[in-house]
């Protein structure tokens, strides 16, 4: 082979090698990023620290409070707190919601006329998704608390499709914004807190209660966010249940001073302190009212009947209205063993309906339903005025 031939063959080999190097280089440009994406996908986001912290997601700052790690809790509920002026209020909410809730409150990035632009709702929902990757959140236990949101922005968050929101609380504001989806009828509980009439003289109650058929439950209360009822309502909306812990009705319970328990007695009348059932008897006699006794026991927590009674039945509008005309007492079964037997009861939860003479008119025990309780109440109450 001549020198020129060897040179040509060598040059051909070099060209082939260069082609392979070019192909390998091109493949590396594709493979390395893909490997990076795979590694990034497997890498879990940094968990959020427990306690209070200020975090940033995209360009949005948010405050968040994560409870101390509870070995018994696999996941936490999330309270998303939105203030109408766009400032975070996580600390304010954390002091009233109770244990077991992650509280997240975003800051607005809007520079427009209003603190929140409707378009920001999508970003807030993305923030919720982001938080759920950094702390174990149950996506079916999302709660929205809106304070002085006079533009109704929070409704675009609470009523978005697949938001996972199960409760919505409005504090000091009128009803505005997005209409609730059909799923809210079975899924969402709504509570409005604040005066019945707004500063401009508008009827807040009427505007809100017109939507009663749109939600699982809906009520208006002239109470502050810090009230014991808000915490109770939130825990019920979260699916929690403690036997006997009920704030739906004006219960007589525990040891009560007669001066507090019987305001309609003649001036100057006094009696020694008594427990709930004793006070109930005296008030039934002096006020001439029918009564209802709710017996419960600690082990009711293991069944569904007590949960159904407290978390569902006592939230029924007509049942609450009828109970408002009664004297109601709530007592633990073990405190009145003899009376429990005298009423002919065998299990808890149990409801005993009594007339003005303290005669038993109806009993509901064991299996609990709206219809059974309503049927029993009709034995001692008349139809509520607003339903006539």
What this model shows, in words?
- The structure is a single chain.
- The protein is of the alpha/beta class and 388 residues long.
- The protein folds into 2 domains: 51-237, Rossmann fold; 255-387, Glutaredoxin.
- The protein contains 13 helices and 14 strands.
- The chain has helices spanning 3-42, 90-97, 120-134, 153-158, 184-187, 204-209, 228-237, 258-261, 276-287, 305-311, 317-323, 337-342, 370-377; strands at residues 51-57, 60-66, 76-83, 101-106, 137-147, 165-171, 189-193, 217-221, 255-256, 274-275, 291-296, 327-332, 350-354, 360-365.
- The protein has an 8-stranded mixed sheet with strand order 1-2-4-3-5-6-7-8, with helices on both faces. Strands 12-11-13-14 form a 4-stranded mixed sheet, sandwiched between helices.
Helix percent band = 25-40%
Tally of structural domains:
2
> What is the overall shape?
elongated
Q: In order across it, which strands form the biggest sheet?
A: 1-2-4-3-5-6-7-8
Helix-strand pattern? HEEEHEHEHEHEHEHEHEHEHHEHEEH
Name of the top-level CATH class of the largest domain: Alpha Beta
Tell me the β content: 15-25%
Q: Main β-sheet, in a few words? A: 8 strands, mixed
N- to C-terminal separation?
115 Å
**Rg over C-alpha atoms, rounded to the nearest angstrom:** 31 Å
Number of helices: 13
Mean pLDDT: 83
Would you identify the regions where 5 or more consecutive residues have pLDDT less than 50?
A: 37-42, 257-273
Structural class computed from helices and strand pairing: alpha/beta
CATH architecture of the largest domain: 3-Layer(aba) Sandwich
């Amino acid at each position: 082979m001549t020198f020129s031939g060897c040179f040509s063959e060598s040059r051909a080999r070099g060209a082939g090698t260069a082609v392979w190097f070019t192909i390998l280089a091109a493949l590396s440009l594709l493979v390395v990023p893909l490997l990076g994406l795979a590694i990034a996908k497997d890498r879990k986001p940094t968990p959020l620290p427990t306690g209070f912290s200020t975090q940033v997601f995209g360009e949005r700052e948010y405050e968040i409070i994560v409870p101390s790690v509870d070995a018994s809790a696999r996941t936490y509920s999330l309270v998303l707190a939105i203030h109408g002026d766009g400032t975070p209020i996580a600390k304010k909410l954390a002091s009233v919601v109770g244990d077991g809730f992650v509280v997240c409150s975003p800051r607005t990035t809007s520079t427009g006329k209003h603190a929140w632009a409707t378009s920001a709702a999508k970003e807030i929902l993305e923030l919720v998704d982001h938080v759920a990757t950094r702390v174990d959140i149950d996506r079916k236990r999302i709660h929205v608390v809106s304070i002085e949101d006079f533009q109704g922005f929070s409704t675009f968050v609470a009523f978005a499709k697949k938001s996972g929101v199960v409760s919505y609380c409005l504090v000091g504001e009128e009803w505005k914004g997005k209409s609730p989806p059909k799923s809210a009828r079975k899924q969402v509980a709504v509570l409005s807190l604040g005066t019945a009439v707004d500063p401009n003289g508008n009827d807040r109650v009427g505007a809100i209660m017109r939507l009663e058929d749109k939600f699982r439950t809906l009520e208006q209360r002239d109470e502050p966010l810090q009230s014991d009822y808000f915490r109770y309502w939130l825990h019920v909306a979260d699916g929690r249940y403690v036997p006997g812990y009920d704030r739906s009705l004006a219960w007589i319970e525990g040891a009560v001073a007669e001066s507090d328990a019987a305001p309609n007695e003649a001036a100057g009348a006094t009696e020694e302190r008594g427990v709930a059932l004793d006070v109930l008897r005296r008030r039934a006699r002096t006020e001439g009212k029918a009564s209802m006794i709710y017996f419960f026991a600690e082990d009711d927590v293991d069944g569904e009947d007590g949960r159904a009674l407290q978390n569902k039945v006592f939230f029924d509008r007509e049942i609450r209205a009828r109970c408002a005309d009664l004297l109601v007492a709530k007592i633990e079964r073990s405190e009145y063993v003899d009376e429990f037997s005298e009423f002919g009861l065998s299990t808890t939860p149990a409801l005993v309906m009594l007339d003005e003479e303290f005669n038993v008119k109806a009993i509901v025990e064991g299996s609990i339903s709206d219809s059974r309780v309503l049927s029993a109440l009709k034995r001692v109450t008349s139809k509520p005025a607003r339903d006539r």
